Amino acid sequence: RPPSSPSPHRPRPQLDLLFLRRFLRIQAVLFPRWPSPSALMFLTLLLVALLEQLVIYQVGVIPSQYYEVLGSKDFSGFKALTALAVTLIVLNSTLKSFDQFICNQMYVSWRKSLTEYLHSCYFQGQVYYSLHVLREDIDNPDQRISQDVERFCRQLSSMASKLVISPFALAYYTYQCFHRFKHMQIRVNAEPAAFYR
């Protein structure tokens, strides 16, 4: 049987309530308590990601300021704006590196915690014997523990900074769009608004 085809007696993985319960159970292992190193690294990642987004926004504003400076032919303003741009770019690259460093540290911490938890379950009550001798449908459970944990933690750590910043970016840009929409309504309805004071 080709490895891509699912086993007839094994259900296909689904994104359902069972998945959510299992994922939350894993999160309880990865974040055992509030002042744990994983929780502190995650909070640091949140702060770094927010600061990184703020710097990226400031870098995006610089081109419009350049046009103003070039139009006025202010050489000292041009030098100051160039120095600001270089500073923001260096700060942005430093924050990106720090972001990746924190994600890699979380990967190592999560992999260690999850592997230790699974091994404690594996050696409890002779589960290792049951899996190796009595269950023929599970091959190499010890290898699966090490490889699956490595893949899971690697993927989760690579997605962490994007998942952390997404709600804040979504809220911010929703606010900006709503604000622009209200301004557009005022512009479109300027005559009736002025007429009715």
UniProtKB/TrEMBL annotation:
<feature type="transmembrane region" description="Helical">
    <location>
        <begin position="78"/>
        <end position="95"/>
    </location>
</feature>
<keyword id="KW-0813">Transport</keyword>
<dbReference type="GO" id="GO:0005324">
    <property type="term" value="F:long-chain fatty acid transmembrane transporter activity"/>
</dbReference>
<dbReference type="InterPro" id="IPR011527">
    <property type="entry name" value="ABC1_TM_dom"/>
</dbReference>
<dbReference type="GO" id="GO:0042760">
    <property type="term" value="P:very long-chain fatty acid catabolic process"/>
</dbReference>
<dbReference type="GO" id="GO:0007031">
    <property type="term" value="P:peroxisome organization"/>
</dbReference>
<dbReference type="GO" id="GO:0015910">
    <property type="term" value="P:long-chain fatty acid import into peroxisome"/>
</dbReference>
<dbReference type="GO" id="GO:0140359">
    <property type="term" value="F:ABC-type transporter activity"/>
</dbReference>
<feature type="domain" description="ABC transmembrane type-1">
    <location>
        <begin position="28"/>
        <end position="178"/>
    </location>
</feature>
<feature type="transmembrane region" description="Helical">
    <location>
        <begin position="39"/>
        <end position="57"/>
    </location>
</feature>
<dbReference type="GO" id="GO:0005778">
    <property type="term" value="C:peroxisomal membrane"/>
</dbReference>
<keyword id="KW-0812">Transmembrane</keyword>
<dbReference type="GO" id="GO:0005524">
    <property type="term" value="F:ATP binding"/>
</dbReference>
<keyword id="KW-0472">Membrane</keyword>
<protein>
    <recommendedName>
        <fullName>ABC transmembrane type-1 domain-containing protein</fullName>
    </recommendedName>
</protein>
<dbReference type="GO" id="GO:0006635">
    <property type="term" value="P:fatty acid beta-oxidation"/>
</dbReference>
<dbReference type="Pfam" id="PF06472">
    <property type="entry name" value="ABC_membrane_2"/>
</dbReference>
<keyword id="KW-1133">Transmembrane helix</keyword>
<dbReference type="InterPro" id="IPR050835">
    <property type="entry name" value="ABC_transporter_sub-D"/>
</dbReference>
